Predict the 3D structure of the following.
Amino acid sequence: MALFDLPIEELREHRSASVEPEDFDAFWAKTLAEARESDLDARFEPVDTGLSTLQVFDVTFTGFGGHPVKGWLTLPAGAEEPLPLLVEYVGYGGGRGLPHEHLLWASTGRAHFVMDTRGQGSAWGGGGDTPDPVGGGPAFPGFMTQGIDAPENYYYRRVFTDAVRAVEAARSHPLTDASRTVAMGASQGGGITVAVAGLVPDLVAVLPDVPFLCDFPRATTITDRNPYREIALWLKTHRGRADEVRRTLSYFDGVHFAARARTPALFSVALEDQTCPPSTVFAAYNAWAHQDRAIEVYEFNDHEGGGPFHDEAKMRWLRSHQL
């Protein structure tokens, strides 16, 4: 599809119409405090993968509600000193996959942690291993409307909490340098990254690629592509509940987390992206609180964004920040 969103000049000025809840900070402080009442109990089991240049650990830690969450920690073989840590979140429908799907970042000499996404991992890649034990009200197939009746019940309350606990778990390993922690991810993973940036104040950088879960008021009306379309289809059936849904989503909108971010960021956006429309990405980018921010614009790409070219851009940017 050709360009369909705002012109680039207007994208660089776009601001979201999402209304921030008055108790946004209190909601998240209470959520994280409740999660931390459970012991993190991060366990790292060595895995024989046949990868001679890397060492891999099968990780289990305690996330939202005391539920076990899985992950992979990958390190360069023979690492003896704490390494800069990259915590990665995966895209919609995917899981942590298999260890050999994650070779790039540990190959650069960094520690790389991949969080499994609860309840997902059956749409692409090597699958997932983390169930979501929490039920909810009537939902459209997918994850976007699970528990959408109230912020306390919403699916992404559990996921964002898991994501913060994943940082804590990864930092607990003796070969990771907690003082040099970077969060990263693409699409859903990018949206989770933006949320973590607003919830974990001492990250040193974040890398959100074509982030999802940003500027819900615009996203749910400008695109008819899933996953955002799941919300519109739920409302098509549950007539008259739009205000209720908007209230719930406002607690999870990336623009409000971005306004609390106190870390440098490198975003990416694709101007033909119908899954995460460029205006929704720019809404989070333009709200970013830290002055050290940059965005790579891929003019003729859809949701694949910069792909391997952006991997190179991220490596250059990390080096420029001595990470």
In short: The domain at 8-320 is CATH 3.40.50.1820 (Rossmann fold).
